[in-house]
Amino acid sequence: RRALHPTPGHTQTRQSRAQCRARELWLPNDQAMADEELAALRESSALHPACEEAASDEEHDEIFRHLWWRVVPVLWLGYVLNIVDRTNLGFAALQMQQDLALTAQSFGVASGFFYLSYGLMQVPSNHLASRIGPVRVLAVSTISWGAVSAATSLVGDAAALCALRFLLGLAESAFYPGCLFLLSRWFPPQSLGRAVALFATATSAGGLLSTAGSGLLMQLTDGVRGVRGWRWLLLLEGLPAIALGACTPLLLAESPEATSWLRGWPPRRRDALLAAVGRGRRSAAPPPPLKRSLRTTLRERRTWMFAVQYVGCSMMLNVSRFFLPTQLREALPAG
Fold first, then answer.
1. Which whole number is the average pLDDT over 225-242?
2. From CA 187, how far away is CA 277, in angstroms rounded?
3. Residues 74/252, Cβ–Cβ less than 8 Å
4. 311-320 pLDDT tens trace
5. How far is C-alpha 165 from the geometric centre of its chain's CA atoms?
6. Residue 180: count of CB within 10 angstroms of its CB
7. Exposed e or buried b for every residue in 78-111, given b needs 16+ CB within 10 A?
């Protein structure tokens, strides 16, 4: 009789248990966390009946505010350093062009070499992050671009500058898509937009820091130990990225299941978090093969429309970043 006419409470209990069992099947069992930690987490989730209860909206907001502070600040700081190390060449050019005998054309070519490698490696770097994990890719990318940026302080001619700017583009290309991929692992769809919007504010912060700090730093260090200020600028602004990249594996995890601090949460909050992120992943369609995805994207007219718009915005922004300091120095009277 109960099977033919189940009560509402009985039906809700069966649905809650089915959701918990589905979440158990979703949890990864290889790279995300150690086997013994995964087994302990599964056991604790199965033993607590709170898994069968739904968390309120207030609890979800509290959970994801906690996640923002665990993940977004580290990525935000990394993106600020990314913007600074990418654009400080415009201020270095105030002294570099004279020291290296660079013309405006050769300086522009060297600046463009960064975006050549940066654009070519966007898709391959994202594919690499999906295979080995975004945290590893972010750590390697951050350390690499910090080292290349610091090494740029040693250049002696235009050819060396072009080579190092090309390497800088290779190193930085994996960071932005890797950050978005990591955020998608931590936040469900209803919270992912807010997390990405907060992360994207680093673009303005990086531009502000580079504009306000690069010229001052170059002026204060010019002549220290007989070294020109632009060399100190590139060296000192590259070192923080190396330090952050070395700390990245300690500060970030591939997903919420791979964290040790999640074990200390109350069972209700922990299960609500894992269930919400799990539902977001299960609801997403599986990605198509890489070749088919590229072919479909390139055939889409909207892709090219957005690309043209983005190229136009990027051209204006990058011209001001690299050439505005030099133009202002030539336009404004000395002193």
1. 95
2. 6
3. yes
4. 888 777 777 7
5. 20
6. 18
7. bbbbbbbbbbbbbbbbbbbbeebebeeebbeebb
